[in-house]
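Q: I'm writing a short methods note and want an example of a predicted protein-small molecule complex. Could you take the sequence and the SMILES for zinc ion and return the bound structure as tokens? Please keep the output block clean; save any remarks for afterwards.
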Amino acid sequence: MRDTADQKLVRKLNNNIILDVLRKEAPLSRANLSAVTGLNRSTVSSIIDELIDGNWVRETSFQTDKIGRPGLQLEINPKGGYVVGIEIGVDFLLCLVTDFSAEVIWRKRLQTNPEDGQVAIQQQAFDLAAEAIEFGKKECGRCLGIGIAIPALVDAQNGIVKLAPNLKWENVPLRLIWNQQFHYPVYVENDGNAAALGEYYFGAARGIQDIIYIAAGYGLGSGIIVDGKLLRGNKGYASEVGHMTYDPKGALCSCGKRGCYETIIGPRAVIENVKNLITEKGPDHTIIKITEGGKNAINYDAVVNAAQENDPIAIDALKEVGCKLGLVVSHLVNIFCPKMVILGGALNYAKDFIQPTVAKVVKENALKLCQEDLEITNSYLGQESSVMGVIGLVLENLWQI
Ligand SMILES: [Zn+2]
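A: Understood, no commentary inside the block.
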């Protein structure tokens, strides 16, 4: 019995290895696949036969392959199935459908209001997912699963949202609820973790094993990948960088504590900085012209636009947040010694001001040896990194036991 179970596991792992290589490097011949994966020819051939039978892989043209032997080329069959990914943000829903080659074939974003509460937002998410499923079904037939990213402490193993401070959700068995609604496999992941995975599978960090992803939006989300694996910690709630304390006497945070980094890094902090600087330096600035004089009308986009027009107040406000973020990143660099730090979320819109500031502060503060070969970059997938991460989770777990 033991052997059979082990053999099944090995076969499933080999399926995943072959599909992963095909997703990244196709078209490849059987001989190529054998060379790239290190699996012997007969193993590759028998797995490929099964994958072709199941419509997961298809043969394309007959060509001379990369190692000079003639043979039929293989690639992922995009029509092999589809995956639905959805991000339940604090005030939005973003839903993507990808085909089996992980190409996005449908996308839709909706604004939501967190005050509407969990039941109403869930219903909006269900309606959106139902629309996505209808499209996916028409294009690719079978649904391979649904991935959900959410700004919350998530028990990913059981698919339970333990605490979503900004949404004010607690102990919501999301996997169970979505399973009952749609009857497909469901994966639930923290949005920062999901975004780190998205960049790792499909974005800026492809092929890189040690990554820190950090994104400011309504909150400050993050995900850490060490040796190619998502850092989960004891209970699965690791990487809550946004709720690390900066000032115990600071502003009240949505998590109930005071002075978390989330309260001083992000668009809300940038706007606060601008208002303080206007009080200090007077109102004669581009940012005031952009918002037609209304201090209360200042929003993050207006600040970024003003900074691009060289408004010193807007630039200073962004740089101040960049400095604090730089300090956080310096601490993380000393602990995890990553190869890449990816800045995402709203920070992306102001990358010309925030990224150089973060890089400068990290250079000055992190240990020299820990930042050797470190690359600080912006998110490649932008707003879609979390959703692509949970889509990657569905694909990665297709043949898992
Ligand atoms: Zn907090």
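A: Remarks, as requested: The chain has three domains: 2-76, 81-201+385-396, 206-379. The first strand starts at residue 57 and ends at 64.
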